[in-house]
Design a protein that fits this description.
The protein is 80% helix and 0% strand. The protein has a single domain, classed as 434 Repressor (Amino-terminal Domain). By secondary structure, it is an all-alpha fold. The chain has five helices and no strands.
């Protein structure tokens, strides 16, 4: 993934922050996100506030958190729809 970003140009700083904010929302709070990223809460807060640039490796970790959450959401929705279809056909 890092090679892909390097080859095809940088994403905007806003995109990095949006993904980090979404990862924070998935984690629940800044402290939980810091633990998942294995970084200090102070670093995470500085990145979220735009005080420090977000390292590419952290962006990739945050993106992974967001994608895994979306995958879980899709799986849960599919499971719910299957159950509803079974109810309607019974």
């Amino acid at each position: 993934m890092i090679l892909f970003l390097a080859q095809y140009g940088q994403m905007s700083v806003g995109t990095y922050r949006k993904i980090l904010i979404e990862a924070r929302n998935v984690a629940g709070n800044e402290s939980a996100l810091a633990m998942r990223l294995r970084k200090s809460e102070r670093e995470v807060v500085n990145w979220l506030l735009g005080n420090e640039p977000i390292p590419v490796a952290v962006f990739v970790q945050a993106l992974d958190i967001v994608i895994k959450n979306q995958k879980r959401h899709v799986q849960n929705t599919a499971r719910f729809l299957r159950r509803m279809r079974r109810r309607l056909s019974a």
